[in-house]
Amino acid sequence: MKLRSKAAALLLLALAALLLALLSLRAGRAEPPAPPARPASAPQRHPAPVPARWPAPGALPVASPGVRRRRPQRPRPRAGRRGAARLEKLARRPGEPRSFQAVLPPELWIHLAVVACGNRLEETLVMLKSAVLFSHRKIQFHIFTEDSLKPEFDKQLRQWPDSYTKKFEHRIYPITFSVGNPQEWKKLFKPCAAQRLFLPVILKDVDSLLYVDTDVLFLRPVDDIWKLLRLFNSTQLAAMAPEHEIPKIGWYSRFARHPFYGSAGVNSGVMLMNLTRIRSTQFKNSMIPTGLAWEDMLYPLYQKYKNAITWGDQDLLNIIFYFNPECLYVFPCQWNYRPDHCMYGSNCREAEHEGVSVLHGNRGVYHDDKQPTFKALYEAIRDFPFQDNLFQSMYYPLQLKFLETVHTLCGRIPQVFLKQIEKTMKRAYEKHVIIHVGPNQMH
User: Fold this and answer.
1) Residues 6+ apart with CB under 8 A from 362
2) Which among 44, 179, 182, 371 has most CB atoms closer than 10 A?
3) What is the DSSP letter of 425?
4) Residue 89's CB: how many other CB atoms inside 10 A?
5) In a 3-state reduction of DSSP, which class is residue 373?
6) Would you say 317 and 266 are in contact if contact means Cβ atoms under 8 Å apart?
7) What does DSSP assign to residue 230?
8) What is the rounded distance in angstroms from the CA atom of residue 373 to the CA atom of residue 220?
9) How many Cα atoms within 13 Å fall on the side-chain side of residue 423?
10) How much is the mean pLDDT over the chain?
11) DSSP, res 366
């Protein structure tokens, strides 16, 4: 009996030991050892998946001890039209408009002024069209014109597509002269051209302004010439390009009967102005020993030199900056490229390297056949349908037209005219295709 009881006890002990061994083995499988620590410089990798444990019926799933639960990642928006819309929605704050382009407050808009009288309606609209086609920032147009042209300006600008009208606002002003004889001012040089002299007085709420003649075309964003305001030093308040690059064959150096700026004078067809500084400056002059405010100086200056000036308001500006050279910033000829820069041979080095940025078709070259290169650019922008592809409907036809102009000196350097407009179109195309369409949808 004693032997049997001892054998039963030993068997129970063996069974207990075996049960403990099985329990410990199961616990070891349920709790895997922690992975060895990696050095800080080692690349991060995703952790190995932990074997799943099914919970008992009715129990809530519980993470294994030592295992940190990871929140599932949200799917990233796909590139392309839908993806861009989702990115825009994520980046937009409540109440913000549906656009990637930030809405600038009015004080950060570009201000562009033009004076149009007589038969300059179409020319002015083509100039404004060239500004809107390539601009990035919103533009405020200040249009000074005769009463008879106001309804047509307003009608034509409102007919442009919404995708372009949202890029600008326009105001139309009457022709007014605050000092002197209005009829005398109006007949100075070309109809209404002298109006530009009074812009600092009329636009009192505008800090800075870009004035251009009606026969100007922008071949790159207006934003780029607007940035030249940042280059002004503490005394400069206006910027213009030289009238000629070679003084010995320039008009002012050979024929002027009045003082003019520098060695060749300046051309006022493209004029960048800090109006705030102009209004607050006392200008040196040849009439009295003390300085005069801008408005107070204009009519006495005209009275003194009216029998000596040929180019009207441009001559008056040259006289003003002759006596105040520290007030003028001179920008390169590529920002005011005229037939004189190529009709006698290429003489604008900046345009040869960078391309024409702003084209100035003076001498009436848009409307005759004397300079077909200028006329081809004007007609290409005039006839371009707003919603068409820039390359297909403007750039390629323009290249073909240029082939017909190689018999002229200006036509022999087509790269000078095409370089900037090609860059501008490429940027616009890439922005539209990559951002708005998406790289995954390009074929």
Assistant:
1) 213, 215, 269, 338, 339
2) 371
3) H
4) 10
5) helix
6) yes
7) G
8) 17
9) 14
10) 82
11) T
Angle CA(321)–CA(215)–CA(237) in degrees, nearest 5? 25
Q: Which residues of 198-211 are buried (b: 16+ CB within 10 A; e: fewer)?
A: bbbbbbeebebbbb
Phi and psi at residue 47, in whole multiples of 5°?
-65, 150
**pLDDT above 90: percentage of residues in the chain:** 64
Quote the radius of gyration of the chain (alpha carbons, Å).
37
Query: What residue type is 20 in one-letter code?
Result: L
Q: Which is it for strands 266-274 and 328-330: parallel, antiparallel or unpaired?
A: unpaired
366-380 pLDDT, tens digit each: 999 999 999 999 999
Residue partners of 52: CB distance under 8 A and separation at least 6: none
Predicted confidence (pLDDT) per residue in 83-106, tens digit? 434 433 433 344 434 343 446 788
3-state helix, strand and coil shares in percent for the chain, rounded to the nearest 5: 50, 10, 40
The position carrying tokens 């300079």 is 371
Spatial contact of 284 and 324, defined as CB atoms under 8 Å apart: yes
Going from the C-alpha of 252 to that of each of 216, 263, 308, 324, 430, the distances in angstroms are 22, 8, 12, 18, 44
